Every structure is written in C-alpha cells, then in structure tokens.
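Subject: mismatched residue count in predicted assembly?

I count 284 residues in my input, but I want to confirm that the predicted structure covers every chain. Input:
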Amino acid sequence: MRRALDAAATAARDGEVPVGAALVWQGEVIAVAANAPRTLCDPTAHAEMRVIRAAAAALGRERLEGAELWVTLEPCAMCAGAIAHARIARLYYGASDAKGGAVEHGPLLFTQPTLHHRPEVYGGIGEGEAAALLRAFFRARR
Amino acid sequence: MRRALDAAATAARDGEVPVGAALVWQGEVIAVAANAPRTLCDPTAHAEMRVIRAAAAALGRERLEGAELWVTLEPCAMCAGAIAHARIARLYYGASDAKGGAVEHGPLLFTQPTLHHRPEVYGGIGEGEAAALLRAFFRARR
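Triage response: the counts match. Full output below for your records.
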C-alpha cells in the first residue's frame, strides 16, 4: 500500500484526484500507477485500470489469477468490473468512497449474482493517509 | 450500428466474443473497435472501452460530452461505468445480456443514485444480427 499511496501523492502533484494503485503478482509488485484521466486524456485511466492493463501487457495474459490489487480508494463500478474481468484474487483498498464507490456503496458490485468472479476484499488499509490526500486535494480546489 | 456489427463479426474471426462498438462525435463516426481482450492481453479491452479511449485520445479530451456510443451488446459494469465517466450522451445497444449486462440487468448501473452521469439509453437496435453473431460464436465453441 506504500507504493500505492506514493502514486496517489504524485497524482495530486499532477492535478489529478489523488488515487494510486499497485499490482502484486506472485509476491512481487509488477505495476504501480496513479490516477491520470486528465493527463492522459483517457476517462478510463483510473489507477486500478492502469495497473491491471500494465500487468496484463507485461505478463502477456488476459487474466491475472492470483494477483493482488492495492488501491488507495474504494473502486468505482468501472474499476470493480475490470477487477472481476481480470480475475484479481484479492483487493485491498484504503478510503471508502460514499459517492463513487461500487464495492461497499452504490451497486455493491461484488455482491451481484451475475458477476463472473469476485475477489476477496479488504477495506480500510492505509485509510487515514489515503483520505487525508483526497481531503487536502479537494480543499485546495474549493 | 452497421459499423459496430461489422466490428463484431471481425472479433469472431479473431476468436474473440463478437461484440463491436462505434463512437459518434458531432455526427461523425470517429472510432470503431471490436472486443479484443485475448488478442491485446488486456482484460479491459471491451469494444466500448476501446472506442471511448480512442475517441478521447483523438480529440485530446477526457470527456466526450454529446457523444453517442453504439455497441452490439448490453454493456457490462466496467463499460457502463466508463460510459458514465466519459459523459457519453446517448447509448444505443443491440442484444441484451442477462449474464453480464449492467444496464437492464444485474446492478442496473444507470439507475444508481451515486452515478455522476447517466446517458439516454436505447436498447434492442440491430438486436437480431448482434445476437445471431454471439449465438453462432458460442455454438461453434461448445
């Protein structure tokens, strides 16, 4: 989660909502990314999507069975859907997101019976620092 | 929808689940793509994601306000989430997807009060041909 939090801090410096993610494959961090939709002109460039795509490309495989995804904020519906498609085994996240989250809020995506795969989910990890980064970012823009 | 259906047929020839999409910006088709997660080693490479990313990159903007997205199959949660993030104005889709769909099935994503943006939605367009492509594909793999 340290690597994900550092990526989130980088996002804030780039004017992006500070969220970061890291992907662990066979005990090794193989992808780290910051949220970057503005910078990359890509509405899908959330931190989770970026590490999943980078890891899948690096490994040359469509699915990442057994992988762990660490992210500083509760994933949205898009990212939770991608996590299921990628067959991520374990999801660890920091702050919860009452507005945009889709894991413990809104559509509660991983409880949907139609979902092909659901990861183990562990929330609240590094929550204090993750939430502080977000609060500082939005306070500065008000 | 013709362009999206042709892309879906291409996907089938490449051994991918036959789904295709096209993105219309200011009356012009600016992106067409087939579903390609296996070919691209990218679990997020659904047709909808690919046209959104291509269009946003081509236009150099994060959001595609006013755009229309045409896709041959009801979007999943990941794609519906991306459609909301991209601020797509109108979504036209072909076949409905009781197993993986997130628009009229499962999480009914565009009815979620937490969603930032919801497009106008028109289903069942080109449904017969879209569903026939999918049926033929899955029949051949059984």
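The first helix of chain B runs from residue 2 to 13. Marking this ticket as 'not a bug'.
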